[in-house]
Amino acid sequence: MGLRDRLRRLERDAGDLSGTLKMPDGTEVSYQRSEMFDALLAAIDGREHRLLPYLREAEPDTNKRMPGLIRALGGNEARGAQG
């Protein structure tokens, strides 16, 4: 099973992945299910996506499910940006 097949299975089994990221300054960034998967693919491929900067900075309680996975994939970059 290829990566895209696995991602499609994850998407199907994950339920509703739309939501809102809460930023440290109190702003909120909304996203749709398809955007989160596009962001995941971008993180895997080392590309940028509109959500990735927000995911790197989002409050920890919003890092459930896919946002947390994407942060983990970009861990080195996120740590480098913070310190």
What would you note in describing this structure?
The structure is a single chain. This protein has helices spanning 3-14, 33-45, 52-57, 65-73, 75-82; strands spanning 19-22, 28-31. With 83 residues, the protein is mainly α. It has a two-stranded antiparallel ribbon.
Task: Give the structure's gist in a few sentences.
With 83 residues, the chain is mainly alpha-helical. The chain is built from 5 helices and 2 strands, in the order H-E-E-H-H-H-H.
Which key features would you list for this structure?
two-stranded antiparallel ribbon; disordered C terminus; single chain; about 80 residues; mainly alpha; globular
Low-confidence sequence ranges: 78-83
- State the order of secondary-structure elements, H for helix, E for strand: HEEHHHH
- Please state the CA-atom Rg, rounded to the nearest Å: 12 Å
Total helices: the number is 5
Briefly note the structural class of the backbone. mainly alpha
Which range best describes the helical content: under 10%, 10-25%, 25-40%, 40-55%, 55-70% or over 70%? Answer: 55-70%
Instruction: Tell me the major beta sheet.
Output: 2 strands, antiparallel
The structural domain count equals 1
Strand content: 5-15%
Provide the residue-averaged pLDDT: 75
In order across it, which strands form the biggest sheet?
1-2
Q: How many DSSP-defined strands?
A: 2
Shape: globular
User: What's the end-to-end separation, in Å?
Assistant: 38 Å
